[in-house]
Design brief:
Layout: E1 5-14, E2 17-27, E3 32-36, H1 43-50, E4 58-63, E5 66-67, H2 72-78, E6 79-82, H3 94-104, H4 109-122, H5 138-150, E7 156-160, H6 168-183, E8 187-191, H7 195-198, E9 203-208, E10 211-216, H8 218-225, E11 229-235, H9 238-245, E12 251-257, E13 260-265, H10 271-281, E14 286-292, H11 296-308
Parallel strand pairs: 3-8, 3-9, 6-7, 7-8
Antiparallel strand pairs: 1-2, 1-4, 4-5, 9-10, 11-13, 11-14, 12-13
Helix pairs in contact: 3-4, 3-5, 4-5, 8-11
């Protein structure tokens, strides 16, 4: 089966700055692929190349079997894209926005009507079809934006921070939609800053400073890149605690995790006996300490932190 996305040694330079540095990547049809990285890592530049909006400096690749260098216009017409910033017309009604986008995608009036009914049912907005878009809650606006991107039945859709600014319940409902699309064979290429969302992806690519530094399923990444044991530590001042632990030889990394710390420590070390003295020397009180299952956020901290602090 032809991959939905195939990149081979793709480079993009802007003058002396290398935004994308020899990325090779393959995404299968119907896969939910998460693309993660810190701000400025090269995610947006890579996606613009995949969407036919930027020509790579070197390398080769295909999206939906189309060449990213020779067929960018065909690529644009073959995919769906939902940006992080809401981009629909607030003063139009729900169905008016959908008709507008149907026209942009070149759908005939009859086909647009049929497809609009299907999509309204999929995104559960049939009862709000006559609502002004500006009157919709943020979560429903996100659903509408996704629906507009799906009108022309693209085989692949790019979602750039699709659940930014919505509550956890709405976020979960949006991911249920993503699973439905994948079950129908649509490839979903998604960027997110929510590490718990990344757990929903079939595979994840982690990019930093233009390079792809990790690739695999959530379980593979945690098993491959996290040695030691992760502890969740409740402490009186988490930022001061990170500073206090920075000089500890047995601490692999430490990061804020909600209101607590996640500290990764070499195996075989008694965390209570080893960590507590460092924190006590800084005048900090430990409220609780327990070993926990590692998360993708721990992977992110471990890999990106090592590159920032070689």
């Amino acid at each position: 089966m032809t991959p939905a996305v195939l990149l081979n040694e793709v480079v993009k330079r802007f003058g002396d700055f290398t935004a994308v540095d020899r990325i090779s990547l393959e995404v299968g049809q119907g896969e939910i692929f998460g693309f993660l990285g810190p701000n400025g890592a090269g995610k947006s530049t890579t996606i613009r190349i995949l969407c036919g909006l930027l020509r790579p400096t070197s390398g080769e690749g295909r999206v939906n079997g189309l060449d990213i260098v020779k067929e960018p216009e065909k690529i644009k017409a073959s995919l769906g894209y939902m940006s992080q910033r809401f981009s629909l017309y607030e003063d139009l009604r729900v169905e008016e926005n959908m008709r507008l986008f149907g026209g942009i995608y070149g759908l005939s009036s009859s086909r647009c009507r049929r497809r609009m009914e299907e999509v309204l049912d999929l995104i559960s907005l049939g009862g709000r079809r006559l609502s002004l878009t500006r009157e919709l809650p943020t979560g429903l606006k996100q659903r509408l934006a996704l629906g507009c991107a799906l009108l022309h039945r693209p085989p692949i859709i790019f979602l750039d921070e699709p659940t930014s600014g919505v509550d956890p319940g709405t976020r979960r409902a949006f991911w249920d939609l993503i699973y439905t699309l994948a079950d129908e064979g649509v490839t979903v290429f998604v960027t997110t800053h929510y590490m718990e969302e990344a757990e929903y992806c079939n595979r994840i690519g982690l990019i930093d400073r233009g390079s792809l530094i990790a690739l695999g399923s959530p379980a593979e990444l945690k098993g491959r890149h996290l040695s030691g044991t992760v502890y969740e530590i409740g402490v009186s001042d988490v930022l001061a605690a990170i500073e206090a632990l920075s000089g500890a030889d047995e601490i692999l990394d430490a990061a804020v995790f909600g209101r607590a710390l996640h500290v990764r420590i070499n195996r075989g070390i008694d965390a209570g006996q080893y960590v507590t003295p460092f924190l006590a020397s800084a005048g900090l009180t430990v409220h609780d300490m327990k070993a926990v299952e590692p998360t993708l956020e721990d992977v992110f901290v471990a890999l990106v932190g090592k590159r920032e602090n070689p």
